[in-house]
Amino acid sequence: MIAQRVGVGALRRAATKPSIYFNQSIPKLALASISTSHVRYAVPSRPAPPGRPRRGRDSNKSAPSSPDSPITTTKLSPSEGDQILANQRLQRPISPHLAIYKMEQTWFGASAWTRITGITLSGTAYLYFGSYLVAPLLGLHLESASVAAAFTGLPFLVKGGIKFALGFPFAFHFINGIKHLVYDLGKGFAKPSIRRGEIALWVSSILSGLYLAFGL
């Protein structure tokens, strides 16, 4: 290596300072080729990163599998096949998962609560009127005077809770119905308007339910 460097240095000096041994007609392309080969041998090659085979002529590449290689199969009973499918289905994610949505879209969505409050009101009405029809057959007294007298004897908080359980669904369903009538006019579809409408709906419904429960 040292002798090679000395030779390259002598060629460079000869190219710049002609003497009796070297003249200016020496092709500089040959000198550049020698210098390039010297640099190529002097710089060590970088090692290949771990986990990746080194590229080169001596790298071992896995030979492709032959298309004529035999394919092995396993015979399963129908019950074993069903068990494999059941295990695969257990690994599948539940889609859509409720955790990917915002809480105000799942727990406080006006669309869902409109249905919940509607079912609460209609279910209570059907339950009472159905019981009122069969009450004479069962010896029960569900007429208005009997219900009012029984309700009057309840504690104040219990009466307020029952009235709020009926007043809040009524207020929410009524106010949200008005909001949908505004939607039918083509207004209020901007995102800020929807957020403000949701907040106003919940606040007004809760306040109305409290007023119907304890204010009347």
From TrEMBL:
Output the InterPro entries linked to this UniProt entry: SQR/QFR_C/D, Succ_DH_cytb556, SuccDH_FuR_B_TM-su
GO MF annotation terms? electron transfer activity; metal ion binding
One of its Pfam families is Sdh_cyt
One GO cellular component term noted in the UniProt record for this chain:
membrane
Coarse class of the primary localization is membrane
Q: Where is the composition biased (Polar residues)?
A: 61-77
Region Disordered: what ranges? 42-78
Localization: Membrane
Domain of life of the source: Eukaryota
Entry's Gene Ontology BP terms: mitochondrial electron transport, succinate to ubiquinone; tricarboxylic acid cycle
The UniProt keyword set, sorted, is: Heme, Iron, Membrane, Metal-binding, Transmembrane, Transmembrane helix
Q: Where are the transmembrane segments?
A: 125-142, 162-178, 199-215
Q: Which PANTHER family match?
A: SUCCINATE DEHYDROGENASE CYTOCHROME B560 SUBUNIT, SUCCINATE DEHYDROGENASE CYTOCHROME B560 SUBUNIT, MITOCHONDRIAL
Q: What is this protein called?
A: Succinate dehydrogenase cytochrome b subunit
> Which source organism does the UniProt entry give?
Drechmeria coniospora
